[in-house]
Specification:
By secondary structure, this protein is an alpha+beta fold. About 20% of the residues lie in helices and about 30% in strands. The protein is built from four helices and seven strands, in the order αβαβαββαβββ. The strands form two sheets. Strands 2-6-5-4 form a four-stranded mixed beta sheet. The chain has a three-stranded antiparallel beta sheet with strand order 1-3-7. The relative contact order is 0.28.
Length: about 120
């Protein structure tokens, strides 16, 4: 309930066509096993930025993400964060604002991603 009161942000995630179809039909994204700040679900601010960030390419998803209270971590201070460590800090997500590829948002629970659809082509 607390996260919903804080609203959501539209963010983007790129993955393979097969994974995208499964994600959209189930409306669930699950965190990976590793990454810049640990096993999380990683998002970009624009469809274009997903190209430089994604480990799997093919389809861009547009997602409503409940970030809640965000912990800002500079690239030089990156360490492995977990959801329980974030909660101890009173936070729900991580923002790495100084990535070369653009700002990176990370959540650790699938239920923080409340609506997932295919991003519209901007061509």
């Amino acid at each position: 309930a607390r996260l919903r009161q804080m609203g959501y942000r539209i963010l983007y995630h790129q993955t393979s066509e097969e994974a995208a179809d499964a994600i959209v039909s189930s409306q669930q994204m699950f965190r990976g096993s590793g990454g810049l700040v640990g096993g999380g679900i990683y998002f970009a601010e624009s469809p274009e930025e997903t190209v430089r960030k994604a480990t799997s390419h093919g389809v861009i998803l547009q997602c409503k993400v409940m970030l809640g209270k965000t912990k800002q971590v500079l690239r030089k201070n990156i360490s492995n964060w977990t959801f329980s460590a974030l909660l101890r800090d009173g936070c729900d997500s991580v923002l790495v604002p100084d990535m070369y590829s653009g700002r990176e948002y990370i959540v650790y629970n699938w239920d923080q991603v409340v609506f997932i659809e295919y991003a519209e082509d901007e061509e």
